[in-house]
Amino acid sequence: ICTLHTAVSLRPTLERAVEIGNLLAEVKKxxxxxxxxxxxxxxxxxxxTARVYxxxxxxxxxxxxxxxxxxxxxxx
Length: 76
Prior knowledge:
Blueprint: H1 2-7, H2 11-30, H3 36-40, H4 47-62, H5 72-75
Helix pairs in contact: 2-4
């Protein structure tokens, strides 16, 4: 249990979420107003998930670097 617990890190997942959010933000800038949500319908995830990715990218712009091992408690 202890070994598994110390190996848990959300950092790789959060880094990917930020990367996806950055890509979505680039697309959003290129599209005319009101076209982003229809464009998102082609993606394999919901519009809500797209907004979460955008929030992760926005958070990264203002936050300090993620710790090496981000725990669930730290993330929350």
